[in-house]
Amino acid sequence: MPTSDDVMRERFLQSGDNADLPIVDAHHHFWDLQRNYHPWLRDLPRLPFRYGDYEVICRDFLPDDYFALAAPHRVVKTVMMEGEWDPRDPLGEARWATTLNARCGFPDAMSGQVWLDRDDVAEVLNEYQSMPLVRSVRHKPAAVARSEHTATFAAPGSMRCKRWRAGYALLEAKGLMFELQTPFWHFVEAVELARDFPGVTIIVNHTGLPADRSVEGLQAWRTALAELATCANVRLKISGLGERSVPWSVERNGPIVRDAIEIFGVERCMFASNFPVDSVVVKLDTLFGGFKSIVADLKPLQRLALFHDNATKLYRL
Question: Which residues does the UniProt record annotate as the domain Amidohydrolase-related (predicted)?
Fold first, then answer.
C-alpha cells in the first residue's frame, strides 16, 4: 500500500508545482521553557549571539507553534536538533522529545546532546542506541575567531583534541551520525576527522556558517567547503544563513545556496529551517519560499531530493 508520503511525492513529480512539494525540515528545535532548562534561553544576562538580540525566541516553541508558522508549506516530517539543554543532564532532552513524539507524532527523529570529551560519553551513547528517535549527536567543537586560527590549532575540546576524538571514535559502533557546527575555517580539522573516521557520517550544520559576506570571505568559504566535499562521508544542511540586522532575501542568499549545491551536489544537500532560532531574522514562510525560489530552475526530482528525499534517507524516516 502506498503511504501518504508516496502519494505526495507522486503528486509533486507529476505537477512540478512547489505548492505540492513535501518538505522534511532537517534541522529545527522544540523547547518547553516552562518545564525544561535550557541555560541560554532561561538565564540572564543573555549570551552573545551571531544574530544579535534573541529575546524573541526565549519562549516555548512546540509542534503547534511550528506548524502555525510553516503554513502554507507541506512540512511532512521534522528532525529536531538538540537545543543546548542543561548539560548536567544530556539525556534529558531526548527523553522529553520521545514523550513529545508519543503525544503528537513530532519530531520524527532527533540529534541528541553529547559531550565527547566527558567521562560519561560511552554511557550517553549507549542510552541513545536504545532511543528510536535518535539518529545523530552534536557537540560543537572548540573554535576560535578566524583571525586567531592557525594550521596547528588543537585546543582542548577541538576536533584535534585526543580526548574529544576518543569519544568521537565510539560513534560508528553505536550507529550514530555526527552533526558538525563550526565555522568554515575549521574545516581543515573536519577534513582530517572525516578521513580518519570514514565510517561516521558528518552532517555539516548551517552551510558552514558563511557569515563574512565580503568577496574574500565568501571565496574562503567556498574553498573550505570544496575541500570538505572531497570526503564522501560528509553531508550538508543548507540553513542558518541569516545576518544580523540584514533582512533575509533571495538576492543575498541565493548565490550562497547555489554555490553550496554546486560544490556538494544535489544528492548530498538538504534544506532546513533552524527554527525558531532563525525566526530572529526571517519568517518561516519567507524562508521556505525563498529556498524554493532559489532552486526553481532545477528538475522536480532534484528539488524533491533537496527538500524531502535526502533527509528522509539520511535520517531513516
Answer: 24-317
Residue where the block lists cell 532563525: 278
Beta pairing class for 269-271 and 177-180: unpaired
Look up cell 541513545; give the residue.
Answer: 128
Q: What is the 8-class DSSP label of residue 102? A: H
The candidate with the shortest Cα–Cα distance to 284, out of 61, 114, 117, 89, is 61
Select from 1.10.340.30, 3.40.50.150, 2.40.10.220, 3.20.20.140 the CATH code of 4-11+20-314.
3.20.20.140
Answer yes or no: pTM beyond 0.85: yes
Sign of CA dihedral 166, 167, 168, 172: positive
Cell of 261: 549545491
Grid cell, residue 71, equals 503554513
The pLDDT tens digits of the residues spanning 134-183 come to 999 999 999 999 999 999 999 999 999 999 999 999 999 999 999 999 99
Dist CA 96 CA 88 (whole Å): 15
308 closest CA partner among 21, 116, 10: 21
